[in-house]
Amino acid sequence: MISEDMTRDISRAMRRLDAVDKSEGRSKYVSDYDFEDCLWARMVRSGISRGKIKNIKLPELPEGYYWVSYKDIPEGGHNYLHMIATDWKCFADDHVLYVGETIGLIVGPDKTKVEDLRDQIEIEYEEQESANTIDEGIACKGGAFINDNNIHCHLKLETGENVDHVFKRCDKVVEETIETGYQEHVYLETNGACCIPENGTYTIYASAQCPFYIRKSIAPVLNIDPEKIVVRQTVTGGAFGGKEHFPDVLCGPLLLAAYKTGKGVKMFFDREEDIENSVKRHPSKVVFRTGLDKDGNILAMDSKVYYNVGAYLASSYVVLQRGCFHVTGCYEFPNMRTEGFGVATNNFPSCAFRGFGAPQTLFAIETHMCHLAEMYGIDPLEYKSRYFIKQGDNTSTNGKVVEKVMIPEMLEQVLTASDYRRKAGEYAYGSGKGIGIAFYNHGGAFTGNGEQAIIKAKCRMHKYPDGTVEILNSQTEMGQGFHTIIPKIAAHVLGIPVDKIIYKDPDTSRVPDSGPTAASRSTMIVGRLVEKAALQVKERWNEEEFEVETHYEHPDGYPWDQSTFQGYAYLGYGWGVCVVEVEVDPCTGEVTTKGIWSSHDGGHLIDELIVHGQVNGGVLQGIGWASTEVMQNVKGHFKQTSMSDYIVPTSMDYPKQECFFVENPYEWGPFGAKGLGELVFNGSGAAYIDALSRAIGKRISSIPCPTEQVMLYMLEGKDIEEAL
Amino acid sequence: METKISFTLNGKKVSLSTDPLRRLLDVLREDFGCTGVKEGCSEGECGACSVMFNGRMVTPCLIPAGAADKQEIMTIEGVRETELGARIVQAFADGGAVQCGYCIPGMVIAAYNLLQDNPDPTDDEIRLGISGNICRCTGYDLIVESIKLAARRGK
Question: Out of A436, A555, A584, A698, which could bridge A713 as a Cys pair, Cβ 3.0 to 4.6 Å?
């Protein structure tokens, strides 16, 4: 069944290697293991947004039950989790900075008893005024708690001439603010992990994207060599970035609990706990000041990008950087100045979510471009196309676009399939019908020379005497299909059947660190290392048993300065065009999506069926973000705490999508492939809002935009053509 | 508190003594090892834990164990052994329906529930049939196509 015809193009669909086990319910996710004799743990968390812990009143703990807190950290150990930055505390000490901050664990043999004990704990606080929105953070409401200005991190980029000088010769300079909200991942499997101690080493089983991240992050808690911690990824039920760093927040406390009790300790979140107390996509606010000539041509653009980082920085500086690099979207503008601010608030820290900061600025620039066009009475598509970036053009970091940009070809595909030109002409603004379009990209892999300077990915391949070949690296399967495409790449190079290839879920004691499964890097970077390893194995095929190791090497001639963010940020981008058509009920504001068309450039695709699934899922997640996925935060408390009130798309909400691709092989990718997993999220929200905005004839500058909001816009919104 | 509960699970008579107010979901997973029954939302919203209960799809996260007494339950562990269940599994694999897989056993049950009554459903009927099952990965299109494939292969 899993035979793959090697004479066919690698793009042709192959059956996923995990599909039958998953469909039959045989795959074991972390909560499906017995972990016999392990204790149960439940987290005790802060119930307030900011304040001092005055007293923790514990119930009397029966024999065999434990309270674990920062006080149990052994001498020399550190009370932090290493998630790029090292500010996120493993346990709160005498202060709490957000609702949901880990204060301690209750651990014991009976699950129900553990829950009872947890519910009896009383925590007395001295509450302080908190800052929860971007504006409150900037205003240092309650007093700054990070630096003296609540700015966790900041960066500035400039291209061309100083924009203030250019503004002086502009016909007008318009200002517009675009905002996006929180988004919850809603991976179908909630977070869970188990830590088992044995002779000074600890084995962690976790639903996670990045096993080596966990090891590095939590080892400082006990001040032990990361090698003493073995992380085994269990089958992971979705992640989308939500299990990139966040598993550390479970595993750090579990490690300490295992150290204290000498027993294995397991913890699984239920859905309410998971939604209320996990990382989300950063809310954002982008303030554009755009200088225009009398015909509406853009002469200069100043953008200020604010992300709500929450209480701890963790990975957010990198998210903000990617956001700022993508603020120019698929365009080249003559003069740009972009400043990014990671704003500290007393909210649950924000973290990775598919797109990693790029979707917010891409939504902002697409929406701003539409509004500029409409203000001048120019068709948004025509206006945007004046600025399309091409090979060799300047990027936001003064690098060049290395590859051919096939936006014109992709555009033609979706325009024809959607009948865009006719519909855009026929559907008058405010007619209840609208069609919208968005352009987007996503820089593949870590920024600049990060793959070489920071990640240093390694991959091994082992040939056994029986002719089977094992691939060893740390990339995880989380639904995206990686554990099918990697054996497929190796099989195609080696010319052996896929079932002769062994590729297991990573165990950090067996595999080299090939970097995190994140940043749309796995296929592009690690896939290439596997391809190279397979070529070496093929050369030596007649040897009975041996192992090869390949290392990432950055191509010469594409400099990057990480201190100034100047140069070639990305060698290869994924590119996308999406068209969405909607109809709006004039009485209820209900939106019906009539069609979704997209075209993507992911280089030469490794598996068109897997990619098709990525496109469908990513595009829908993007529309969910822009429409129904409302996640409010009031004084630090998330208001939507279940799958009943946080509304993700169902099978009834959107029509079947039409997907197209272009053939654009990437020079440094395996078989010409490049990253695509995040790209497919990055533009559908903007296309949906463009369509909706035209259908109701009102300007929309903030998402999500659920039905209630559509009604409000219809009743009192600004007309689409009104001057900014 | 403990009550003896007997029911048919995947074609076999089973019984246990337990608190009748425990969730049927926990009884199936913990007492009978049916870990293909996945807990997703704990409130009947996502369908990941779907099982067949007297021939109809239900979410056992909302059902007390006592309600199973003298009833007939089939989980994914049983459905996969049926001709229709196996056909759906194979079609899901061929049609690209599976990504992270966590919703998929429940999705197979939803497809089984639909196709047992309606062997040749339209796209709309399929979308309605799986509307109680949330998938965050696939955007549903390839699941719908895979169910169509399963239906075609049954002709």
Answer: A698
